[in-house]
Amino acid sequence: MNLELINRVRRQLAAQTHPGWPSPNHPAARADIVKALCAAGAAPPDQTGLLEMSAALAADLNGAGPLQPLLDDATVTDVVVNGTDGVWIDRGDGLQAAPVSIGDADAIRSLACRLAAAAGRRLDTGSPYADVRLPDGTRFHAILPPIAPGGPYLSFRTHRAKAFTLSQLVDADTLTADMADLLLRVVTARLPHLITGGTGTGKTTLLSSLLSAVPATERIVIVEDAAELAPDHPHLLTLEARPANIEGAGAVDLAALVRQALRMRPDRIVIGECRGAEVSELLAALNTGHDGGAGTLHCNAAADAPARLEALALPHGMPRAGLHAQLVAALRVIIHLRRNGRKRQVAEIALIDAGDTGGVRGLGVATAWTRHGPGPAAGILERLLRERGA
User: 157: which of 91, 134, 139, 216 fits an S-S bond (Cβ 3.0–4.6 Å)?
Assistant: First the structure.
């Protein structure tokens, strides 16, 4: 798209009084751009050309420019830009090169700064990285030189407006039918659960699906760093953390939001991702009668979850014994995902339990179920479910 033409249309739009567009495909955006094109004397003679030009301009002015068609593709989950070395997409089969030209480093930087500014974040040499949520729900991260010598590097995680059902996840081989039935019983029994796995293993997708199975009579309050969870549930409230402004004031972290969630008459409190001090707040909330809570955690294996939670909670003043006591009382089920080739799969459903190892009381993790069937702790999980009427 010709930069001079974009600037002319931008000046025409600036002279109009119009609201912000929620997306580049919004009818108001297209209508305003068509008017601006005509006023700028740049409208092509035929209707098809006019529509194509207005779509491209909408993406350049208010969307992700040449990347917007990739983000609009329902099969694409991730789009990454490796500086001027190319654009890659993931459709669930691993990263593949995309035949898209995004321009030189200055053009990439300009796009990144515009997207960050539209989300209310500063992105420049003084603040060379940003992690924001775009108006359509897409998660966007950018990091600029000099801390990214070959950058700018951009990463987009697309947003699915509606959660998958457990049946759809079974069809996709994310979990087996027996696992789906078991997890549905975990949700029904209001057993607190933690979904673990590496980046891109499907933790948010699975949690959205499980929350969609929560009875409609229950009130769910979700606390997230950047809103990503989109369960299909009629009584859902989302609280989103806020970074500090340019003066370094106004930050609202996840721990503060968890405390606010406790005052909102929740039936279930959900942490989108446990990263730090909010672990202590979540465990405290789960130990005050809010059964059925959930969260996600970056972790290599289910057995590593207790150590990972210790690493997050202990630096914030919680004693190790107190952490273990709260974990055993409030958080029992771990659902671990991993990538198996090109598939994202639930590898294990496990239980956190206390045990004595060499006279030292610690935490253990016992496997209740795998893709091959029941594990050593299957009987314990079954007892917990039956005690809760599931």
Answer: 139
Q: Helices 278-286 and 320-330 meet at what angle, rounded to 10?
A: 50
Amino acid at 63: G
Number of domains making up the chain: 3
Cα(208)–Cα(195) distance, integer angstroms: 11
Which one of 159, 178, 203 terminates a domain?
159
Query: How far from the centroid of its chain's Cα atoms is residue 126's Cα?
Result: 26
- Asked whether the beta carbons of 61 and 6 are under 8 A apart, the reply is yes
Domain limits for position 233: 166-387
Domain boundary among 159, 191, 213: 159
Q: How confident is the model at residue 314 (pLDDT cuts 50, 70, 90)?
A: confident
Residues 34 and 112 in one domain: no
Q: How far apart are CA 187 and CA 193, in angstroms?
A: 9
Residues 333 and 193: beta-carbon distance below 8 Å: yes
**Which of the residue ranges 8-12, 85-89, 137-141, 248-252 would you say has the lowest mean pLDDT?**
8-12
Contact present, 153 and 142 (Cβ < 8 Å): yes
Could you tell me the pTM of the whole model?
0.80
What per-residue confidence (pLDDT) applies to 47?
62
Block residue for tokens 């989950």: 77
Q: Which residues contact 135 (CB under 8 A, 6 or more apart)?
A: 22, 23, 118, 119
198 and 298 assigned to the same domain: yes
Q: Are residues 94 and 58 in the same domain?
A: no
Question: What gap in Å lies between CA 172 and CA 104, rounded to an integer?
Answer: 38
203 and 95, same domain (yes or no)? no
